[in-house]
Amino acid sequence: MEIWAVLTAAAAAAVATELLTRHLADRLRRVGVTGVDVHKSGRPEVPEMVGAALALGMMIGASILGWADQSLTPRALAFSAAVGVASVIGAVDDLVDLNALQKALGAALIALPLLAPGIASPRPFLPLVGRARMHLALIALIPAFISVIVNSANMIDALNGLLVGSAAVISATMAAVGAWMGMEATAALSAVSAAACAAYYRHNRFPAEVFSGNVGSFALGAALGSASTFDGLESLLLISALPMIVSGYMTIVSIRGLKSRTEIEVKATVLEEGDRIRANPDPRAPITLIPVIALDRAKTERRIVAEIIALTVVSSALGTISLLVLTPTPAR
Amino acid sequence: MDRGSALALASVLVGWLLMMLGFWLAGEFTAWLTTRPREITLEVLKLSMGTVVLIGLLVLWFEAVKRIAVRLKAARSP
Question: Structure pTM?
Fold first, then answer.
């Protein structure tokens, strides 16, 4: 792996994301593609679906990486294809609200580029165990794995900067652990994702200037999931994304299935004086990680996001320890 | 740290421990499999066993976290 190629690709992803975010935010605001920020008493209108800029930024970075380092070309292309398919499905969901079955089928489509021969590693690296082997099971497990990650990412994207901040932490962890273990494709493409997330986070953090929409959250989930499969680092992603996965599970169970936000009758949280968020006392309200954190007392949006990102730092550290300290078998 | 934040942290820490237990079980099952006659092989079997155990334990824990959260919320409601 050429280090200059990774640095160039990461820088290109960050610059492209920054420029595209500014451009798209202006355009989308002008044509009226906006959403209301319900967690602020002024209920400001914010441009929606700007996550397309993040998706494009990651795809541009990955394409440059694939061009600059030909050993990474097939996986860079698969990464771009997965992110591209995910963002198209997310955009359709933003515009026409897909039902649960369509979303599940969509997640399987995202996994298709990863199932091409020589793309996903058939030897996942498991904590305490080392390298496992699975060839046939890969075809069934990768779509399920991608579906879990994409839907978890989509469901936690409810507060300013929450998903993008968490994804930046997870991508940076995968880049560092991947580089340490000599897993080139995962390290390089995670570095590209982390750089794009860092650039986009400036606009999406509290108080958000832009909303990602499903187009952004699906693309981010696909980027995290696909990068982890290239060198068998799925276990690191599963551990690092535990806060997202816990929240996703609780959401699905409490609303009884995959549903769009418009189908959920009672909101999980209520807004109190001083723009503080508290768990909705209504027993029908869904339980996710956000109301769990605001169970005892109302908290500011910024505080809740900081707590969940801190949880992601903890889970990423646990994932790193699991693979680098507790697993004696060499990675390769 | 309030009870909500503590529950969220516990959900991650116990979730991690259960995942590690699941991976350890997968490893043990692998070791057991390698001592059996070759006709039982199929690498898929060992992974599917570990995966089922892992997912089952995690789902039980996540369900417990959700139930604790619902109880805490009901206790706080007027």
Answer: 0.92
